[in-house]
Structures are given as structure tokens and as C-alpha cells.
Amino acid sequence: MNKTVFAFAAAVGAFALSCRAANLTEIANADFESGDEAAVLAAGIAPSPNVKIVGGSDAIDGKYSVMVSAPEKSHHLAIKFPVKNGAVYLYELRYKVRKTGKYSPFSVRLCNPNGTSVKYSGEARGVKIKNVKLTAKEGFKVPSDGKSYYFRLNVPCGSEVVFDNIKIYEIIPDETNSYLFVENHDKYDIFFDKTFPGMYYSPTAFSFLDPHSPILDMPKEKFFPFIDKWGQYKYADWPNKIKSDEDLAKAHVEEVARYKKFGKIPNRDKYGALENSCGDFKPTGRFCIDKVGGKWILRAPNGNLFWAFGLNSVGNFASTVVDGREHFFEDIDPNNCPAKDIKLIRKTTRPILHYPPEERPNVFIHSIRTYAWKYGLKSRNEILAKIKEISDWRMKNWGVSTYGCWAFPTILDNPTHPYILNTDAPKLTCASQKICIQPDPEQRKLFRMVPDVCDPRFRKIVAGGVARLAKKLDNEFCVGIFIDNEITWETKEGYTTEAILTSPATQAAKISFREFLKKRYPEIAELNAAWNAKYADWDAFLAERKFIPATEKGKKDIDDFDAVFHEKYYKICREELKKVSPDTLYLGSRFAWRNKHALRAAEKYCDVVSFNLYRDTVENFDEIKDKPIIVGEFSFSRSDYGHFWKGPRQVANGKDQAAMFDHYMRGALKHPNFVGACWFTYGDQPTAARPDGENAAFGVVDICDTPHYDLVRAFRKISKKMFDIRFGDTANAGK
Fold this sequence. Notes:
By secondary structure, the protein is α/β, with parallel strands linked by helices. The chain is 28% helix and 18% strand.
């Protein structure tokens, strides 16, 4: 037994407590307030010159915390102890990063004896942001395979981290609660967990589960249903949780009172732009791009400075699958709703990610029923009118300047607030009509669908998608348009063209590649010589599906056409938009996956390049050098409000969520290229998950339409200081 393990074994013997449930053991619970070595041992941290108790401004909570400093050229293993096969371990700790090195400031994970992580186990990594107090909360289940495993908290080379309130629990699943726990698995397999199918994560998600939760002593027949009539998780509590229909009305009264107390965001014109900041700029009557003091910025139609702080999916209500899961829900009676003309149960109309392509399950919409109960709405028309009223009111009170993607349609009727339009027509239509690259999967397998932009139908699809939005595009409140969302471009340059080479002879992109090559190699013999190929003629080139050249000339031809292919996509999108609305800004395709050819093409043809950037910060983002950028999506999901999935970027609670939002937005506002950023999303996702399995709490309102006020206050704080952060002196910002 090494020194760390020995120290922790001693700590467990001295401090481990048997908790309420017979199968729950508290391994560590250390707040370091004694300020001595015993407190360090209680956390399982072995004494070391790299470990010391700190106080004063260095402490996180209370008088004392513990600081772990890793040497510049080696890691410091702060905690390591053996774990039991089949057991569940939950851990929570507060931390503050003092110094960062090359890696994440710390990691907590389940490891093999050699220190490698176990696949799909719950790993927590410290956020690489200095001097922000945050919480890490996660856990894992140890495989039941008879092998040895360890709990490890590691601080890597050059990092210095202050820790506090370290809690570690061990749960031994028993015959009462074993139905709740499955082995660690890939979150995207939403049918792995047979107890909770259709969900990324369940009530025993380790980032969510309270070790003292009553469900640990609850047999399966008592646990279900676990979703109440308002769509909330039954077996946890949180601030502003709805417990009666009367609570819904009270929540609205409280919200009105809060906003009266907050007051208006100062110095904003009717567009949410900075008042009196036009300076010498000549207004265009539409939103446009400008550069001020070396920083890109949007200009409102009146010429004032505008930064697109946006919010996605405002006013929308997400559904959850009920087929095969009826026992999840306390009340999914479609007739139990005051708005009798609303269809609460319906079949999905298009394929759902992770489901078989032909499957169309029934879904239920808790949130729209709760909305009707809350505001006393008796019809669909009343609901539509209330959605616009409440949404416009909240956007102004929250300081959000822009409706982002997927705003509820009626919100944009007779608009009084800036908005960004989007059309997913190219991506969705190409997928449904199979106007996409169709390679031989044994040769090249694409990540997901890539539209065949060389097919003449592609241009018509783009034109139709844009034309349907013509009236909204030409409105003064329209900031611009995203065409498509997260096109699944391959991340390796040339790979798409290699896939095209393995496609059928009728593939439009392959025919275009042939014409491209004919200009370089007028005779097929020349191509054969350059590629070391054996094509009999150009028709044979089209027919061949199993040959990809490995010569330098062949690789260059593939790379060059790959650039042409990606450029064609953005060129067509721009041309068709400008035919319909010449003055509307083309905001790109909201990159998630990209390669350099897609990036350079977007840079060339987009007025503003868009990225969905789920990361801790964008302050050093450098994929685009000197072009306006907008963040189409970002967020941090909290795990303390009855939602189980931690989302792309997770925080433990509302305080941490507000802190991470503030840091992210400051990074974007200070960056010379960013002209906007849109939070995803307006409302929390359904507790039992939307149809594709997502069930995270990254909304500004919960599933009962109550705002998360920690986040609202953070929104307002940033909104008030937005132009000061961007330009320093707003008095001279427009000059």
C-alpha cells in the first residue's frame, strides 16, 4: 500500500460514518476548518510538501481550505484509494484554480491500477479558469468483473488548486435499489438503461444523485411514477418548485414584482442598441457590420452600436416520448387542460435521432399544459398571444437584445425586438430526400449526412427555404439569418472527397469531381499516371468505388476539390439569400464540426461566421482571424433543479452557472471578432427527456415557466456593462 492509500485508509477508519441508508457509507466529509493535518487526512489527502492549509483570501468557504500544488514537471496524486467491485461512488468538492498548466487543473476519476481511466466512467475535470469558486459533482459505478480499480484525484503538472468541502460517498446497490443502477455507458445510447429508456441520464445520474435521496430505500413499484403532473421530478426539492396549481399564479406575481424592483436596462434604444452611439456612421436602415477601435461590431438600423446577446428557442415547448414509458408519469391525461383545442399527445412527424428511421412515437407536452394552468388560458389562440406578450416582456427585463434561433413563430409577428432567423431546410430536406453523399461504407464512412451541394436540387432547396422567410428577412428588426445548423462536416480535410470517390456513378458530386479532373488531365491516361490508377476511361472513373489514390498528386487533387466542394455550399447559400434579401446579413451555418476548407469558405462568403461553442471560454478563440463571429449556442447546465443530464458543459448549481456565464460573456465581449453570443436555451428540457434523449437544465426558465433568477441577474449584469466591457469608454464608443 502506497503512502497516499495508507493515509486514506487511516482516515476512513477514523472518520467514515455509516449514513441513514444501510448501504451508504460516508467515506470523507472534510471542510478543513480545524486548520490542521487531521482535516487533510479526513479528505483522504496524504501529507506532502505539495499540500498545505490556506486561509484568508485563499480560502473558499469558512476560515480554511487546502491547497495542492503540483510540480512543474510531475503530477501530484492527491487522493487514491481502492474501490469495491459493483459499488457506486459519489463525490462533491468546492475548488478554485490558482495556477494552470498544460492540462485541466485537476481530474477525479475511476482508474485501473496503472492509472488509465475506465471508459464511460464519470470523470470530473477542473475548469481552466483562475480564481472563480466552483463546485465539481460526479461519480461512477465500479465494474463487477473482479478486477482492481481505484478512486483518483490528480493535480497535473504546474497546476495549483484550492479545495474545500470534499465529500465522498460509497453506495452498495442492494435488492431494493439495484434497478436504479446500470454500468457506466456511452450517454448517447439512450436505450442502454432498461429502467429509464429514452434518456441520456436517469435520476441516478452521478452528477445529480443526492446520496441521501429517499429513492435509495425505494423499491421499484413505489418509485414509479417519478414525474409529477407539472413535469417535475418528484423525489427532490429546490427553490421555487411548484407544489400546487396556486404556486403557478404566485410565481408570476413574484416575477412581476422582481422586474419592477430591477428597473430597466439603461441607455438602450428601441433596438436594444447603445443610445447616442452612432457618431459619424451613416445609418443603413438595416443591421450591418462595422469596425470600431479595431473591434468588429454590429450597427442597428439607426447606426447605434449593437451587440447580439441572444437567447434560443424562446417560447417553445418541448415534448417527451410516452410510448412504452407511460408508467413514468403521474398525469398525461390530454383532457386535463383548460385549453381544450390544444393537442397534448401527438405522433412525431419526422425521424428522431437514436430511434429507428421509421419510428414515430407518441409524445406529450407537459410545459404547454402548465403554461395554460399558470395564466388561465382557455384556447390555443390565447396561448399564442400570451407567449408573445411574456417573451417580449422578459427579453427586455432580462437585458437580452436578440431572439436567437427557433423563436416561437408568433413572437416574430409584428416584432418589436431584434431577432435572428434560421432555416434548416437544406440539411433536413437533403437528408429526407437523400440528396447527400452516399459512399461505400466499407471504404469511407461519413460521420453523418453531408449534403451533395453539386446536385442542382440543392440550390432549389436553399432558394425555397429562404424565400419562405422573405417577409421576415426584410423587417428592420431582422439581424440576419443562419442557413442550416451544425452541418456535420468531416473534420479531416479531403475525407469528404474520398467518400465521394467511393459513391455511385450517379452521385452529382462525383460527376463534378470528374469535370474538375478533366481540366487538369484532359486524357484519362494522364490521370492514371498521376494517381497510379487503371481507369479504362472517364466512365470507368465514375463506376469505380474502391480506389482512392495515395500519390502526392492524387492527394492534392482530392484536397483541392474538397475546398471547391465546401466553397460551393457557402457560395450557393449566400447567392440565394441575397437574391431574396440583399441587405440581410448571412450568418453562416453554426459550425459544430468543421475542417479548414469549410472554415475558409465560410470566411469568404458569410457576413458573420457562426459557431456553436460549448466550452469554458472563447477569449483565445482563433479559428477565424479577422472576420465577425457570432456564437450560435453556448450554455452551462445546472444539476440542482431536478434534471439529470449535465449537458455539454455542466455546473453544479445556479451560482456556478451564473459565474461561468459571466466569464464566458466577458471573454466574447473583449474578443475583437465576436459580435454576439446566444445562450441555449430559453426553457429547461423535459425531465424525462425530449425525444432525442436530452434532459438538461440549461434554460432561463424551468419546465414550469419560473425563471432561474441567479441566471437572470447574471444576464442583467452583463447587459448593463456590455458596451463598457467591449469598448471601455462608451462615451466615445461610436466615434
